[in-house]
């Protein structure tokens, strides 16, 4: 699933030259604060038994709070795919970028 | 708090932050909704992959029935769509926020 997400989104970087990987610092400070909040939720949900993972289908590597490695990767790869998507969209349709930086037009 | 309580809270927080903290809200921009409409089918596919029951009667991720409302879309709890929306909106919002502050804008 993680590989699928990588292949599904990272071609945008190569073919549309979205330049997101080049701007990795901006990506990092966009993803880390949000992912941290979601991983806290994850830790809580795992501890409360809201969800549980089929351990036979996991890599078997667990980080702090019993969060599987796959979850940490999920919260890096999925947000990265989201950023690549919106950058891909605004690269193909530059006029949608108009409101990005200027004053609000409304 | 159950999974659905937290998922709804996450969406509310993400929406409020988008509208009132990050100026130039993504929720008012076509670029965001276009991106979300691209991401949504992929999310449904990966949700299904992670949550449908395999031959052994187990999914990769399973949920405590007491913590979800029970409505399932593409075999995943409807809460997963709320969670995904909150994650995507907040990460893209922060990415745009740093861009407007001039951090690695190009």
Explain the overall architecture.
The complex is a heterodimer of chains A (106) and B (106). Chain A is mostly helical and 106 residues long. Chain A has one domain (15-91). Chain A has four helices and one strand. Chain B has 106 residues and is mostly helical. Chain B has one domain (3-100). Helices cover 59% and strands 7% of the residues of chain B. In chain B, strands 2-3 form a two-stranded antiparallel sheet. In chain B, a hairpin with a 2-residue loop joins β2 and β3. In chain B, α1 packs parallel to α3 and α2 packs across α3. Chain B is elongated. Chain B starts with a helix and ends in a 6-residue tail after the last helix. The mean pLDDT of chain B is 94. Chains A and B meet through α1, α2, β1, α3 and α4 of A and α1, α2, β1 and α3 of B.
Provide a compact summary of the structure.
The complex is a heterodimer of chains A (106) and B (106). Chain A is mainly alpha-helical.
SSE topology:
The complex is a heterodimer of chains A (106) and B (106).
Chain A: H1 2-15, H2 24-48, E1 51-53, H3 69-92, H4 98-101
Helix pairs in contact in A: 1-3, 2-3
Chain B: H1 3-21, H2 30-51, E1 61-63, E2 72-73, E3 76-77, H3 79-100
Antiparallel strand pairs in B: 2-3
Helix pairs in contact in B: 1-3, 2-3
Rg over C-alpha atoms of chain A, rounded to the nearest angstrom: 17 Å
Report the mean per-residue pLDDT of chain B as an integer: 94
Order of helical and strand elements of chain A = HHEHH
Biggest sheet overview of chain B:
2 strands, antiparallel
The average pLDDT score of chain A comes to: 90
Query: Given the helix and strand composition of chain A, which structural class is it?
Result: mainly alpha
Helix content of chain A: 55-70%
Number of strands of chain A: 1
**Total tally of structural domains of chain B:** 1
Chain oligomer state: heterodimer
Q: Return the structural class of chain B.
A: mainly alpha
Number of domains of chain A: 1
The rounded Rg of chain B comes to 16 Å
* Low-pLDDT runs of chain A: none
Which pair of chains forms the biggest interface, and how many residues does each contribute?
Answer: A-B, 47 and 46 residues
Q: How many H/I helical runs of chain A?
A: 4
Helix content of chain B: 55-70%
Query: Biggest sheet of chain B: strands side by side, in what order?
Result: 2-3
Helix count of chain B?
3
